[in-house]
Design brief:
0% strand
């Protein structure tokens, strides 16, 4: 064996040892990098889960609010119908009262002029006031019945 051959084998052995050492060092670096990647992946998954739960909670609240708004809208529509009904009835009642005021002097003069004579003609507006009052009573009764019925 020549010296050159022994030196060549020594260099090859040293190169192999150096490669093994560099491989071990690289393995440690890659191992710590893989741990960091796994830790980051776990953190990201936790954040995704957290924000998914938050989104579900917000969606639930929005659905609840939408349901309440729909209910309020229906209630407002019913109350507007009642108000328009009441406004119409009030207008009719006011017209009847005004006609009664206008005709009250005629009725009073009939009663005063002939107390013995019976008035054969009923003033037309008095019956209209009575009918309007009866209609108001019946609509109020129907609304109350409808409001408190459990169908």
């Amino acid at each position: 064996m020549s010296i050159e051959f022994i030196i060549a084998i020594g260099i090859v052995v040293l190169a192999l040892v150096a490669l093994v050492i560099v491989g071990i060092l690289m393995g440690k670096k890659v191992g710590s990098l893989m741990k960091e990647i796994n830790s980051t992946q776990t953190t990201v998954q936790d954040q995704i889960t957290h924000f998914t739960k938050e989104t579900d909670a917000i969606t639930s609240k929005i659905d609840h609010m939408t349901t309440r708004v729909d209910s309020m809208t229906k209630d407002v529509a019913v109350k507007q119908a009642y108000i328009s009904d009441f406004t119409q009835t009030t207008a009719d009642f006011g017209d009847s009262i005004n006609d009664l005021k206008q005709n009250s002097t005629k009725v009073a003069s009939y009663f005063l002029s002939s107390s013995r004579r019976k008035v054969t003609v009923t003033p037309p507006r008095i019956t209209k006031v009575g009918k309007t009052a009866l209609k108001m009573y019946q609509s109020r009764k129907n609304r109350t019945k409808k409001r408190f019925s459990f169908n």
